[in-house]
């Protein structure tokens, strides 16, 4: 098996370009304040890759913070309600790299989407963001519950970005599928046929 960048098995995920991952592992994108979006269905290695790229950034001396999207939004909403939003935005703006994992698994409430927009705006061209999502960018209007806010977020994230769409089957379910315990259609509902 061919692997690097945190042990990613390229044979298991042929849709990933090893050259592109090696380039991202240099962390030049972090130095430049760029964003990385890792998109794809559950189980294809987005979080694994995000952690590996975050670790590479740390090794190269960049402050890095990893946070699940639901936790991030909960913290921002709580801080807003308690009158501490500015303090919490500063907390999430301070690291050179902010990794936001699993954006899109749960939809945001309208207020949460506006809070996330404020964070993205503050980090824009100042600090890098790496976002993993099981939703394509075309679906982010539904994730944020507001197409206008989603467009504004994407406008900033995509301006200086590297977008990697990972296709394929769930790495976690591969052995179950081989054993006949899970069929392809139930493992990946998006591929069901009529």
Characteristic key phrases:
194 residues, alpha/beta, Rossmann fold, five-stranded parallel β-sheet, 10 helices, disordered C terminus
Structure write-up:
- It contains 10 helices and 7 strands.
- By secondary structure, it is α/β, with parallel strands linked by helices.
- It has one domain (3-168): P-loop containing nucleotide triphosphate hydrolases (Rossmann fold, 3-Layer(aba) Sandwich), CATH 3.40.50.
- A 5-stranded parallel β-sheet has the order 4-5-6-3-7. It has a two-stranded antiparallel ribbon with strand order 1-2.
- A hairpin with a 3-residue loop joins strand 1 and strand 2 (8-9).
- Residues 190-194 have low confidence and may be disordered.
């Amino acid at each position: 098996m061919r692997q690097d960048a945190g042990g990613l098995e390229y044979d298991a995920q042929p849709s990933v370009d090893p050259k592109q991952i090696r380039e991202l592992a240099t962390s030049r994108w972090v130095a430049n304040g760029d964003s990385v979006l890792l998109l794809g269905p559950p189980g294809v290695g987005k979080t694994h890759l995000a952690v590996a790229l975050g670790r590479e950034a740390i090794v190269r001396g960049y402050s890095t913070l990893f946070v699940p999207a639901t936790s991030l939004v909960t913290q921002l909403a709580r801080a807003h309600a308690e009158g501490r939003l500015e303090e919490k935005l500063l907390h999430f703006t301070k690291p050179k790299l902010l990794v936001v994992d699993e954006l899109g698994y749960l939809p945001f409430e309208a207020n949460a989407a506006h809070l996330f927009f404020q964070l993205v705006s503050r980090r824009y061209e100042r600090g890098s963001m790496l976002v993993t999502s099981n939703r394509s960018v075309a679906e982010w209007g539904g994730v944020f519950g507001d197409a206008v806010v989603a467009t504004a977020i994407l406008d900033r994230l995509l301006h200086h970005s590297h977008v990697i769409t990972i296709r394929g089957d769930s790495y976690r379910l591969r052995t179950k599928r081989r054993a006949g315990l899970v069929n392809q259609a139930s493992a990946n509902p998006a591929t069901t046929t009529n």
